[in-house]
Amino acid sequence: MAVGQLLAPDPVPNAEQAYVMGPWGARGLLLCGLGERGVFYAAMTLLQLLEATAPGTAAGLVTIPIADVLDWPDMAERGQWDGSMVNDMERMAALKLNLYEAHARLSVTPEGRGRAVAQREFIERGRSNAFTIVQIINHLDQNGGTGLYTHCPETRGRDAAGKPSLRTPCCAQPRMRQILTDWLSDLAGQPDVSAINVWLTEDIQGTGSCHCDTCARAGQYAMEIDAAVQAWRTARERNTNLTLRILLTQGTEWVGNDKLVPLIPPEVGVSYYSGGGSYNVARDPMIPAVLAQRAAAGGWVGVYPTLEPQYDSTCPWSCPQFVKFRMAEFVDKKLQNVCAFVQPNNRAYDLNVTASAEWSWNAHGRSPRELALAWATRRGFKDPEAAADWAVTLGPVGWDIYGYGIWFKGWFDEAVTLLRTQRPPQLGQGQVGKGIFRYFPSPAALRKDFALCRKALALAERSGASELVEETRVTTGFVTMLRAVYDMAVILSSDRAPTDKQRLALRDALQVFAEAATDTVAAQRAWLKSCGIEGGVGYTDLADTIEQASREVSAVLEPYGVRSPYTAYLPREIGKWEDTDFREQVAIRKAYDVTHLLSGPGTYAVKFVYRGGSVGLGVSRVALVATM
Q1: What pTM, to 2 d.p., does this model score?
Q2: Which residues pair with 337 in a beta bridge?
């Protein structure tokens, strides 16, 4: 057995989580680790082995596998923030995930004292599942709801005119620094709180930097970093084991992480997040050089990646190749933490979540297909081999589409703009957030991905899993829409007006696009249902985005005498409301004239779409009435 290797002078990485498993006597099996976590993970491995042998075991009997195992994780912290992790902790622990970063409950009293409370239910649940629960101090520009600016208006950042009007805080203000210290000190004094992550201001471009003399001279983020570090040092007087990590943002990236990271003391961890930098699935390395260098030198570095195609909408995508690519980079660059973003829950992206657990533990172990087969077998699919083949066939097709960048609205906006401006499609070119044909170097690549979708559909049907079928339909819909956009753009980018033959080709391509859009929306809704997802579908509804694009593409072609027969059936905006509508009373009635939208008797659907703001509205009744 390899027990002695755990106690060797040069132990394996992350030895406190390592374990050994081996024969004990004639009929026993020994599970051993240097601590609780190691033994816990040994038990999780044994459960998986028992699960694999159980189907062929006689009733009432258990076959205990004889194994000699030495195992350890490549990365120390492996998990998520937000999402459904807290309600899914037992299942995630079985995959050897061990991290949940949770928002602390922050407030400011009328007397100006900061209060922070760790959510005890998370900590208690984490303790029994070998989880580390890290307390989050929310983005410093998003704490207005705590009472900060109500009770301490002087903590607001000052605008160019010197007025305290910004959402960004002024970290030169002694009161702001004291409140941050209060929050960290409160958490430091609570049982089992060992780590805090302070999220720096997120939207510096939108909220602006404080213009007071001190902040203007040092810089907004330099002041935020200094305030967080000093608050942590004070908090350590209550808990000497308390560690601090600081979350970078798209704002720090805009200002320059190269300038800011050196300001963070080496004993403080750095987590990399950026809406454009880490919340994308491009086929590019993610970790900036300044952080890779810090990690290589022994500094603590973590990352906040996404495991879904786009952060703004819920869209199916299972791609073990993508997850292996990401995790291998993180491990090879010696990061110690991966804290993924998964919405609305882990069930929606089950294969990708499972893959993140697999390759953050052992980055260079099983192949994508081997992992997919193990996942499909544990899920109990009728034909696991077909499901595994499906995953490695369809996943890269989605990667070609979703690797575009940040959000679906941008993807469709670029497609519409391409047609409207009559520019030729740029195949094989682009960068994150620009270039919908970036991973399609030729028209043949579009045809190849469409053929792979057809192959994947047959495999999905063989697997017996409806969610795989619907995911395939969604991916096929995106490829079909992109092919139609390419065909239309080639015609419209010509120096000459379209001929009659070309107008017929535009009509056919528009119909293909419109039908694919409708099919994609239907498939996405069916996929949500097959995954048991109701309600939360992301920041924006993918169906709204697709239907809007279908209307806009049709409008672009109308001057050429080409119209979509489906436009009349797409949702159209009939009205909206503003904050000022509620100035006099909290409940109002709005009336809109929809006469021109009624084509006859039948059922008409009314949909309310959230566009922005921190507080939503409740709608109690909708009625179609006739006026005389």
Answers
A1: 0.92
A2: 77, 302
